[in-house]
Amino acid sequence: MGLALLAVIWLITFASTYFFIKHTWWLPVGASAAAAGIDRQFNVTYILMGIVFVLAQGALGLFVWQYRDRGSATKAEYSHGNAKMEVAWTVLTAILFVGLNLMGSPIWASERFQPAQASALPVEVTGMQFAWYFRYAGPDGKFGLTSPKLMDPSAGSEAAIGLDTSDPMAKDDVVTGTMVLPVNRQVDLTLRAVDVIHSFFVPNMRFKQDAVPGLAIHMHFTPTQVGDYEIACAELCGLGHYKMHGMLKVVSAEDFDKWLAAREAEKQ
Amino acid sequence: MATVTPNLAVKDPRTRDSGGGSPPSYGGGGNGDPGGTNGAFSYGDRLRRARLGLVVGLVAVVMIFVGFTSVLLVRKGSPSFDPQTNTYSRDWVPVALPWSLLVVNTVVLLVSSITMEFARRDIARQVALAPVKSIPGVSLGDETGFPWLGSTVLLGLGFLAGQFLVWRVLREHHFFVYSGPSSSIAYVLFGTHALHLAGGVIALVYAAITSLLHRPVEARRIVIDVAAWYWHFMAVLWVYIFVLLLIAR
Amino acid sequence: MATSEVVHAHAAPQGFIRQYIFSLDHKVIGLQYFFLALTAVWVGMILSLFMRIHMVWPNANLPLIGHIQPEAYLSLVTMHGTIMVFFVLTTAPQGGFGNYFLPIQIGAPDMAFPVLNMLSFWTTFIAFIVMLAAFFVTGGAPLHGWTGYPPLSAVQSAGPGEGLGADLWITSIAIFCAASLMGALNFITTTLDLRAKGMSMMRMPLTVWSWFITAILGLLAFGVLLSAGILLLMDRNLGTSFYVPLVVVNGQVMAHRGGSPLLWQHLFWFFGHPEVYIAILPGMGVASQLLSTFSRKPIFGYKAMVYAMLGIGFLGFMVWGHHMFMSGMSPYSAFAFSILTMSIGVPSAIKTFNWLGTIWRGRVRFYTPMLFAVGFVSLFVSGGLSGPFLAQPTLDIPLHDTAFVVGHFHLIMGVAAIFGIFGATYYWFPKMFGRMMNERLGKIHFWFSFIGTYSIFMPMHYLGMAGQPRRYSQFTELAYLQHLIPLNRFITYAAIITISAQLIFVLNLFWSMLKGPKASDNPWEATTLEWTTATPPPHDNFGGHTPVVHNGPYEYGVPGAARDFILQTDPAITASPAH
After folding, report:
1. How many structural domains is chain B composed of?
2. Is B31 among the domain residues?
3. Which residue of B35, B53, C137, C179 could cross-link C546, Cys pair, CB 3.0 to 4.6 Å?
4. Measured between CB atoms, does C361 come within 8 Å of chain A?
5. Which of C400, C499, B170 is nearest to A234 (CA)?
6. Do C512 and C381 belong together in one domain?
7. Backbone phi, psi, residue C209, to 5°
8. Do C187 and C98 meet the contact criterion of CB atoms below 8 Å apart?
9. Are strands A187-193 and A121-128 parallel, antiparallel or unpaired?
């Protein structure tokens, strides 16, 4: 029985670790400026935790077999513990865990403590049951007012977020169902939600942030690769949660300008 | 009736191991042993236990009000985004409370704490004198005392009536439970406290009934003692709610 | 009139109702909790079976319930989580085994307040009925998840099931809070005040410590949940705006203004995080007890184990924000919560090292309880080590609200804690029912469960890293999830097999209760007080006298002793080395 336990524990450990190392199922390709740092911290964490995992499970499997009762020949060692070892592994564990955390904090700080750069492109993301809408501020660089009473998703994107067309600043706002961003330019997102909590999750950008009713949350990221990236909702928002998705298209700066100009022209 | 429990013979439990080994030892009797013999508990143990239980239970009640307090403070400090102005705004309108009425209620409750304390000490004295009174031929004179317990119940009911009055005044001034967060949380604090106090009143009524049913004086003392400390706690809690609303509403 | 009257504890009751229904005997009450949890876990498992089947075959027509709609799926998710967390994990380890064995292990004849004990069980039972009622009302059970975030949970029109079903859900939880607080009161008072002579705090079995600390956590946490739930009911029904700001739901502008959805999250997780320690601490206590008993060795580092549990309990109240890194909470707070969360890994690691140290140089006996204890350690390590990923907000960005989190908490709560319950059942069954459970069936149950649960929950970490979000009823809408469906199917097959294998346990349990071989008083040759009394214990636990304790709880393999175990009531061992 001891041998069976050892075999199964070691096998499970081996299989789990194998799939981790092989990256059989892994983080999607990172396409933002923050991705490299996040992925590096992820790798450090999983290697360190992986080592602890293998050692702990290995020891467990080994001990239950090695110290099995083999009849009257075996004697258990009468010991209540070892204070020195307790102190040692307490200190080491503390250093490992806290150290790991402190290692990753500069990335968090750069992502979240600092506001967007002045040159960032402002985009407002609004989540509602069950779609994402994206608003661009237009030539005036300002977002116009919206009103809950004017919301009407059946009448198009502007009406979906309740754009108040009587507000002069709103006249040039472009609202779309697809998010288009220029590559290598930071985007200053404002996240809003209309009804319940949603979460704006773009796996390839390593970006996630809850969109909360009653708040307008500022967050930023910088896409670094041209391509199409899926957007998922990552906070339970109702029966359509699984199909509340969007698409982020990262294009060259010229393509972006052309696209935005075309959207502006449509509004005339 | 006093009883004397004899020392029971030590029983040797069957541990069906491979023989040998000394049988486990059990404690002999001995008065005042925690737990005692025959699973019996002395009155002193039960009083201490009941008080300990009350303290533990009051921690739970405190945590409920810790929750409500943090709601008041956080909700008051949380601005909300108004899309119609693209700015954050606060919607906190302090509730207008009828302070004179609340002060009257506070006085009523504090006085009830005093009467409760007299009731508590009264029955403690009765327990202490019970051995003397049980000696045939000994009398301690007039046994009818002031109805402290009854007074406390009346004052408690008076406080609750006063609270109902407070809520009526609030409604007359158009502060309903849904009229803004300040009003809401005031109702929640008042209401939860009143519910707990009503529970205290029920406990006092039960204590009064046990007296009429001639339950042993020790058992009655435990009920009244625990109810008294609970009652004092309700007074302290009320003062806390009063001050909290005074400075933070 | 009375002098100093000695009042007898309640005598053994007569009559079926007093003896089995409204019993004041902590042993009967413990069994009532146990069987309530057993019922609840089967409800919870069947809900999860339907969930797993729908996730990979969304259009399937299932027997009895037909085709599952997306909103029905979310009701399954909500009720599965709620029933498992509250009515299984907070009930069986504490209310079940704690109730039964805490008094006996400290040498007491019963809990401090037997009437309150009886009330706390029946209040839990009522809470369970109210919870189940949510399935049967118009709109059905709520779909807002066990975490119940407003505004989804606060606005009745935000989804099917968010009407009366959600009100019943909140009410049930509120009733459960009251029941738990009553139980916590009893456990704490009993542990502090009813210990037998010689049973100092540092001679208490680690199971008792775990129940004691769990009760303290419950005492401090459930009051906050209760306050949060009351306010949610008010937002839903009385027009208040604690949690709900201006929202437009289904085209309608709601009357709420200015509320804060984050306020709920703070209150809920202030309770919610200690709750998960409430779920696991008793399992840790049981694991310590079993590893020591079946390695024939004292627990390695008893004092460190006690301090570690105290540390986990204390720190457990300071880390709730790690559930909210993505919520819009201040990133500075996130940093603080993150450091505290990593620190909680330290006492957990200490316990793991000490469990390994207990087996090391022991004489391991592979009875079924020991298998589950070893399984507990393995699962605790696995589930615990995914914690440091989530504790770092940087890594929480890709991992929050994905299957990675689901894998993490299931390995710890949904498996390790359950293995604690299984281990406790197999270990204490002889004492409770006077018969032995079948060893062969026990071992088969263990292997299916151990391999099966790893097969279900380890792959979820990979799915989470690949970006699979939580609470998705199906994966048909996003292209990047398609390649994950085969692994999801594997998990579903593993779940079907593992859940079916639990029938072996139920079979073994009931068959052994009726027909199992008779057990001696101490079949495992263990040292703690429950093994010094008759099997099953008499009504007042020790047959008319109070034990006197002379030894610590884990004196196995004492050199020079006649047997390899010393009962706590045996004469004091003279050569007692430092702990």
Report:
1. 1
2. no
3. B35
4. yes
5. C400
6. yes
7. -55, -45
8. yes
9. parallel
CB-based contact, C307 to chain A, within 8 Å: no
Identify the domain containing residue C43 by its residue range. 22-252
Instruction: Summarize pLDDT for A4-48 with one digit per residue, the tens.
Output: 999 999 999 999 999 999 999 999 999 999 999 999 999 999 999
DSSP A26-47: -PPPP-BTTHHHHHHHHHHHHH
Q: At what angle do helices C164-193 and C114-133 cross, to 10 degrees?
A: 160
Distance CA A170, CA C515 (A): 79
Closest alpha carbon within chain A to B82? A214
Closest by alpha carbon to A121, among A265, A6, A251? Answer: A251
For chain A, where are the E strands, in sequence order?
121-128, 131-136, 174-176, 179-182, 187-193, 198-202, 207-211, 217-221, 227-233, 245-251
Cis preceding linkage at C398, omega within 30: no
Q: Which domain holds residue B112?
A: 43-248
Residue C577 has pLDDT above 60, yes or no: no
The phi and psi torsions of A131 (rounded to 5 degrees) equal -150, 160
**Token pair for C115:** 């009437």
* pTM for the structure as a whole: 0.93
Question: Which residues in chain B have their CB less than 8 angstroms from residue C114's CB?
Answer: none
C226 and C339 belong to one structural domain: no
Residue C201 — φ and ψ, nearest 5°?
-60, -40
pLDDT lower than 50: segments of chain A: none
Nearest chain B alpha carbon to A150: B84
C 440-499 residues with CB below 8 A of A? 443, 447, 450-451, 454, 458-459, 462-463, 465-467, 469-475, 477-480, 484, 487
CATH number, domain at B173? 1.20.120.80
CA distances to C127, C142, C158, C162, C238 from C139, in Å: 20, 8, 12, 7, 20
User: Which two structure tokens, joined as six digits, stand for C22?
Assistant: 């409204």
- Tell me: pLDDT of C388 over 80: yes
| Structural element, H or E, at residue A267 | helix A253-267
* A147: closest CA of chain B, how far (Å): 5
Write down how long chain C is.
Answer: 579
Q: C212-240, pLDDT tens digit by residue? A: 999 999 999 999 999 999 999 999 999 99
What Å distances lie between residue C299 and A76, C479, C554, C557, CA to CA? Answer: 12, 52, 6, 11
